[in-house]
Amino acid sequence: MTTLIRIFFFSIFLSYFPNWLSAASCASGNLTISSVMATSGNGSYSNPALGSVKYEFCFRLTEYFESSTNWVHGVFVSFEDIPAGFTIKPGATGQQGTQAGNRNWVFFDSLKAYNLGLPGPGYYVDDSDGNPTNNYGDNGLGTPIATFPNLSPFCFIAEGTCGIPRIIKPCITVTGDGTTGAWRNGDCTGDLFCTFSTGPNNDGTIVVCGAVVILDIALYDFKAFPESRDNIIEWKAKVDETFAYYELEKSSSRNSKFELMAIIPQQNTDYSNIVYNSFVDKTQILRHIIV
Predict the structure, then answer these.
(1) Around 107, how many Cα atoms within 13 Å sit in the side-chain half-sphere?
(2) Mean pLDDT of the chain
(3) pLDDT single digits (tens) 196-252
(4) What separation in angstroms does the CA of 107 have from each of 87, 151, 159?
(5) 213, 5 in Cβ contact below 8 A?
(6) Which among 227, 77, 221 is positioned nearest to 157, based on CA atoms?
(7) Residue from 205, 286, 233 nearest 24 by CA
(8) What is the pTM of this model?
(9) pLDDT tens track for 43-95
(10) CA-to-CA distance for 155 and 123, rounded, in angstroms?
(11) Where are the domains of the chain?
(12) What is the DSSP secondary structure assignment for residue 286, as one 8-state letter?
């Protein structure tokens, strides 16, 4: 049994770099978990998926803002988002003709993606020469906000064998052809989508390889704001006697990885009360998540 101390609470954007928000945010859509199969268990908190595990998740692309004439080009799982011990394969649907034009959405596995310099396995628009990096994307219907009513969902299957107990939350990234294709303007550098509903727990998560215990903790207030050149983070929470500490993580953008910023020990032993906590970060960053 593994006890998680890192609990996701809340995210907030700070405004030191207002132009950053226009650097991506091109794609609109919804990512859902379609199925979970395992030697035993269904992936819920009470019945984890054990042994050989396979789950499918699908992304439906609805709109794409063609910033600087970027056309949607890649729908993939970033290498850094692949759970350890798992392989990403094409799902039930995804490989298909483009909404507009005569190109095709083609699945490239991890090896092919790596050899082509692509950021992860998934679906990319290709001109049938086996190299999506030298062509444009799918411009859909309409501009600058393109729609894709005839595209089937982009589905992925993750397969693996159990290791350590953990919670998996599937994520995909959507890029424009200025990032993974041949267009020369990289405004649509990547939009990250993660499951937040559906699945065996109805919260976008799958529990694999053993029981995972979520600590009993409640967040009553959270705020983060710039003060001079610092970031002030304040929160109020109530925890039980098994709680040890908070971890604060930071990221330089919505699509980059989070790094540990600070560990805040639980100071109050009166577990019946709501406790005020705070932290001052002196680095200029764009997003904080308190966990």
Answers:
(1) 17
(2) 84
(3) 889 999 989 999 999 887 666 778 888 888 888 788 888 888 877 767 777 787 776
(4) 14, 15, 16
(5) no
(6) 77
(7) 286
(8) 0.73
(9) 999 999 999 999 999 999 999 999 999 999 999 999 999 999 999 999 999 99
(10) 9
(11) 23-212, 216-290
(12) S
CA dist 28 → 17, 34, 274 (Å): 23, 19, 38
Q: How far is the C-alpha of 169 from the C-alpha of 202, rounded, in Å? A: 11
Query: What tokens appear for 248 in the block?
Result: 């604060």
Give the 3-state secondary structure percentages of the chain, helix then strand then coil, rounded to 5: 5, 45, 45
From residue 61, how far is each of 28, 29, 154, 179, 195 by CA, in Å?
A: 6, 5, 8, 18, 14
Take residue 116 and report the two structure tokens written for it: 């082509």
Tokens of 176: 């424009």
Tokens of 233: 């983070």
∠ CA 137-79-9, rounded to 5°: 105
Is there a contact between 70 and 178 (Cβ–Cβ < 8 Å)? Answer: yes
The secondary structure element, H or E, covering residue 110 is helix 110-115
- Residue 123: CB partners within 8 Å, gap ≥ 6? 74, 75, 76, 90, 94, 95, 105, 106, 107, 108, 154
